[in-house]
Fold this protein.
Amino acid sequence: MRPSTAASTAGRMPQRLVFVAFMGCLLMIIPCFFVAVWKPKLDPLSSPNLQLSVTTSIKIQAVRESSSISDRSGSEMVVMPISVNEDEAELTNDTEIIRMPPPEEEKGRVNMTFTEAEFSNSTMDEEQKNNDNGIYPTTNVKDAAKPKQEFSLATGKPKAEEGTQEITSQTEGVAESKITCDLSERRSDTCVMHGDVRVLGYSSSIILSKAPQADAPGEENTWKIRPYARKWESPLMEIIRELTLKESTKPADTPRCAVHHTVPAIVFSTGGFLGNFFHDFTDVLIPLFTTARQYRGEAQFLVTNFNYGWIKKYEQILRRLSHYQIIDLDRDGRVHCFRHVHVGLLSHKELSMDPAKSPNGYSMADFREFLRSCFSLKRKSVSAGNRKPRLLMINRKGPRSFSNRREVASLARSLGYKVVVAGPEETKNLSRFARVVNSCDVMMGVHGAGLTNMLFLPTDAALVQVIPWGGLKYACGHDFGEPAPDMGIRYLEYEIKEGESSLMRQYPRSHPVFTDPLSIHKQGWNVLWSVFLNKQSVRLDVRRFKGVLQEAMNALPH
């Protein structure tokens, strides 16, 4: 007897449900399978490194920008290939193209606690650092003899004292209270304060608290200081934060101390032209060495116009001049108390110092020895030997570059040099490139900040500065020629002629650019920069330049 339709349908329902469930599971599994198999092939971070013509690659750090202060997004490491142009491919074995390995990838996030006598080594990116509350722990507070005392990043206080309101200032043993200012130097103004000194960063004030005297009229003096060593550059100095230094005998005008330090303070700015390699050294690092070296690391740096990226770049230098965490003076709301404060940096010369004016007679020889220690540079001086002298060519990209670099390198090799070529990418890692420079005997390049690397050359090395067209001989010599003898470096220069300048293709020969370059100077710095420095490349006349390279080689110890 044939079953009814209803009964037949009911019998097949469990089978259909099983089939539908099976297909549903299958549809869920298949996409997961394809993601697991194919995603590694689509992920740019796990793909093979694509090379154009060499096997070296560099890692470029890409930081995600965020408009939210609370956004702490991470960073990615993107592998990018290096291309080699035809010029490089044809260089022989006597020419070395510097290929710097990438800096080590920073791991982790912020170290939330700091210990005494320890320079923080956090890996916070610049955006994240700028978004922080700006309060940095001090590591030289009064009674800081207990080992490994920890400080809170949130409050800036020792964790054991989180509940306290302040640390009272103590002034026993303080010499006579006074402020001594020197406003006569051409490059920088400086003031030294002795006594009960209270630093109020949030109000740009530094107060010397003095006890009122019955027989004195109570006169209170005031000074204004912008702590950056380029005081003749008026438009620039306007962006440097001005600090007010004053004496006070009125308790109501003298806030109580939140942190009392046991070491001297040095106050300076990381604003201005910093970020330019030349100005990094001539405006801050050399003056900072001149001012701070006498304290052998026992000094607290207070920084205005705080530039975290700059401080991170020069950490190897800064941590040897101060053993303590640098304080962002603009954003720290606490009252810091010292017995000795030095406001502004001692600065005497461009890219140099005057031993007659420096504490303990410090000289550029001392500073260069200090740099060799910071970067573990092996060569103190050039010594006679049988090996080929190494010639380092600093090759810029774009303006003031060598358009016939291969021809120049060939000339140098024919004279007996081992040629080392370094472009902008190779100079970015300061520590590694300092070692490259130190391994060379002669350095050459067109006028520019890259020649500041002469600081890392060994004593008795030679520097060859190529001076662009445009009446720039004096200025170029002032920046690099005059400092060279103080460093123990032989200086040579080569001033190009009109025919060696790319300006010949931009202006007629009758133009004032060629007939009267000084008339361009009179139109102001911006015009001079635009014409002679930012639009000019150089094609050296190798027949004329040959004599300079020969002279540089002959100047080396034999």
